[in-house]
Recover the amino acids of this structure.
């Protein structure tokens, strides 16, 4: 199965993932998590990146980004990952010992409809599925916590979603993910394919010259 070439076009939503080399821990203390969140704030201020959701896990992280212009995501991610790698090596006195991440970040286009909300929920519920917390907002290092308990300065890290969050967000985010959503989102990440309706994915493949043999994932196309 072929992989989609990396895209970096504005006005699209992306699911972005990276992991530590060898799946070792990136974050081992509160200071480690705070360091990355501080860098997220800096990167956002430098590039005007719109961050819709995120979660930091012990050996990896997820971001949901909504860049305004072509090339913005690459600029944001290059600065963030390089700055984080330098900061960690400096703090741990391991400069010159090798890479922090297993490779370049992975990014996947997301359709701006219920698919975007499914990915947001998938990201924010990651700590619950990993049994690190009993509720998404109880995990300090993610956007679910910020939305409900974050200080104003940190809440500003999150941008307004192009798809309104459910009015009953607190109950919605606590409700289990749909198994079909979990399967399809994981399939998107595994295959490197866009996440949306069949019609939309085929359009993305055509417009952005993505790998033509990729198998679309997501909900069946809805009638207009």
């Amino acid at each position: 199965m072929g992989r989609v070439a990396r895209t970096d076009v504005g006005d699209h939503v992306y699911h972005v993932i990276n992991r530590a080399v060898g799946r070792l821990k990136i974050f081992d203390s509160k200071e480690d998590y705070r360091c990355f969140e501080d860098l997220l704030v800096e990167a956002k201020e430098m590039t005007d990146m719109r961050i819709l959701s995120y979660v930091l896990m012990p050996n990896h992280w997820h971001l949901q980004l909504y860049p305004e212009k072509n090339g913005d995501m690459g600029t944001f991610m290059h600065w963030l990952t390089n700055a984080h790698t330098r900061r960690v090596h400096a703090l741990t006195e391991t400069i010159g010992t090798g890479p922090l991440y297993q490779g370049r970040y992975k990014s996947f286009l997301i359709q701006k409809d219920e698919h975007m909300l499914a990915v947001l929920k998938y990201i924010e519920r990651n700590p619950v599925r990993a049994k690190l917390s009993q509720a998404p907002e109880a995990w300090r290092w993610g956007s679910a916590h910020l939305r409900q308990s974050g200080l104003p300065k940190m809440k500003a890290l999150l941008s307004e979603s192009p798809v309104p969050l459910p009015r009953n967000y607190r109950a919605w985010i606590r409700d289990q993910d749909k198994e079909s959503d979990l399967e399809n989102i994981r399939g998107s990440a595994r295959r490197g394919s866009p996440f949306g309706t069949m019609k939309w994915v085929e359009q993305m493949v055509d417009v952005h010259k993505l790998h033509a043999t990729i198998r679309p994932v997501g909900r069946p196309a809805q009638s207009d």
